[in-house]
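Hypothesis: this fold can be encoded by more than one sequence.
Test: take the structure tokens below, design a sequence, compare later.
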């Protein structure tokens, strides 16, 4: 009988020491206070511990469900981010291609403008040359006489 009492006291003191180490949860503090009191039986404390374990298990299930939900949302968000990054990359390539096309067209327009200027100059030179040739031809040709028939 004496040995059972000392074992119960040892268990009680170890339980109190373990409960006092965790100061963050008020429920554990309440159990430690109940163990320290002389009037509360150990059976009530065990019932409180069992109830707390049930509550913690239900909270763990809720936490696991929330974690799973959050992980799904994170995966969906990451997929959307990758999709949008791909779209941005495609659009950036399209913009780069368009800029390159614009630059090419600008060069072609400039080259065509140079060709047009060159052709205008050649036409002007040819016109001037024809005028000179016409003037020379009119100087060298004998005056035409009109015949009366």
């Amino acid at each position: 009988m004496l040995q059972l009492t000392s074992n119960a006291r040892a268990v009680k003191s170890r339980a109190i020491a373990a409960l006092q180490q965790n100061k963050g949860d008020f429920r554990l503090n309440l159990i430690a206070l109940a163990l320290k009191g002389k009037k509360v039986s150990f059976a009530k404390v065990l019932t409180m511990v069992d109830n707390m374990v049930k509550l913690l298990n239900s909270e763990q299930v809720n936490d696991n469900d929330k974690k799973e939900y959050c992980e799904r949302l994170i995966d969906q968000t990451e997929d959307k981010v990758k999709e949008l990054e791909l779209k941005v990359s495609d659009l950036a390539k399209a913009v780069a291609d368009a800029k390159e096309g614009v630059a090419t067209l600008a060069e072609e327009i400039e080259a065509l403008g140079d060709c047009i200027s060159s052709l205008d100059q050649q036409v002007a030179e040819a016109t001037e040359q024809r005028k000179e040739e016409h003037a020379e031809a009119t100087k060298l040709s004998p005056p035409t006489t009109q015949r009366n028939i």
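The chain has three helices and no strands. Helices lie at 2-21, 26-36, 42-140.
Hypothesis status: open.
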